[in-house]
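Worked example 2:
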Amino acid sequence: MTQSTTPAVDERTAATATTHDETVEQDAATATANEAADAATDTPAFSDLGLSDAVLEAVRDLGYETPSPVQAQAIPYALEGRDLLAAAQTGTGKTAAFLLPTMSRLPRAPRHHGPLMLVVTPTRELAQQIEDACETIAKRTHHRSVTVVGGLSYEPQKAALHRGCDILVATPGRLVDLIEQGEADLGEVQVLVLDEADRMLDMGFLPAMRKIVRQTPATRQTMLFSATLDEGAIGGIRDLVSDPAVVEIAHKGTVADTIDQFVLPVSLEAKNALLAEVLKAEGPSHVIVFTRTKHRADSCCRRLRRAGISCAPIHGNRSQNQRERALASFRDGKTDVLVATDVLARGIDVSDVRYVINFDVPSDPEDYIHRIGRTGRAGETGWALTFVTCDDFGDLRDCERLMGQVVPTFERAGAFELGSEPPELDLNRSAEKPRRGEPGSGKRKRGGRRKKPAGEAAPRGRGGSARSERGGRGAGQGHKRAGQSASRGGRGRTGEDVDVELLSEKERAAIERSQGRGAQGARGGRRNRGGEAAARDGRTRQGGREAQGGRGVRSDRGAQGGRGTRGARDSQESRSSQGRRGHQGAQGRGGSGAPRGGAGKPRRRPGDRQGRNRGIY
């Protein structure tokens, strides 16, 4: 009897367990739904933030439905008049976070007065975007705004400032120029906003920023917006705010979840052709390509046009009108591809950018975050592709360590021509920063040398050969690390001491150039020594005339043989030393070489600056 009831008990137990599991799953689903509802409830509406009715109408004009996290947290502090330090991901609405509350409570300045609000931003494009947002809001609030940036005529900007304004949007360089000319008076500023403050510091605007701040009243409200609140990024200007409220939505190196990232290893010789190939395969419409230098941006545009792809460059060498036309054409869809530099990585705010291509890996990891942040904005999805050559391993690793994640290889990489020897990326590489003492940590004993981290197959220095294209120490640094082959003046090892198989084409070319400079330096040195000997012996034509006719101390012309060298310092020393020798030699040959106008006094030739400064020719 007992045996017959046991299976029934087991079935009831199993059924009870199944029912319990289903109940747990239902409870978990209910809890998740409740959390989502609570989160939706916790996000306030714009009407709950205390904005004026006119600004709420402007919010509807801007197309905003719910405030972003940085807007929801920053707007109440700004309405209270508190100083503010705010950091958020790119594309999260930081511009509206300071414009909406300030224009909600900002009075209007009388004619020929103002500004009452000053916004300082690093680039012309960012200034133009802030001006556009100001104009949209001002249609409801009736504030007057003026923008002063470089690249445009001074006179219209001076006239606008004389008429007066409520809001002034400016780049640091042009605003300092107007202050020094007495055309900009910041004595009535009530609210000061430093937008993209970390970028302005990177661009060397710290002295200009401090000069601007000194022109504003001490009682102002100061709001500082940055991509990060890291001490190393904005430590130099934290003293500009007093008892600030801190809003930090995303920590340093955070990338939006709406952006997918990929890397594409490629050989150096195949990199140029790869860009057009990728654009044609993935579609060239509404794409931004980032390069490291202005000249490379122009060369990329020329190649893309030859491939039949419409594109436009935008960088510091372009005039303001050219940049505005390029952005307008890109927004309107008349131009498919926009090629830009890192200076403009934060200044381009265009919706519906399908994807971003990093033609060069940026040297600053923060620039990588802002580059790929041009896509996937305002909740949209996007993706970014980065070309990686043998010179880019170190910069790629720095970007990955900043983000705390490894960027995977492009899944369709096999469909493209990547060159004869594309670099191999270590699939097991780590995005964590190496500990002190480990390879790649940068922490080493004095006199020690940095060991190559795993995954860095190419020999390169701290800046690598890529630094030579940025105006750094030159490509020689990479091959010096490999074999110490670069020699000065032809001394040291030759290229035969280097294992050329370990070097890239760029580094081999650098070795050849350094050897050529060494040979030229040696030939110049021989010519210089020949000129010195001729001057000492009095065998030059001019030196002989001076010794016979006593024309004064002009025998330094005999050292002109040294002017053929590339070392200006050597030839200058040769000329000055031979000038003294020629003077002594002319006086020592029977006194016939004494200059006219008194014994022992060298004659100064009229109009000779060097003679006037030194008292001799």
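The first helix runs from residue 2 to 42. The first strand starts at residue 84 and ends at 87.
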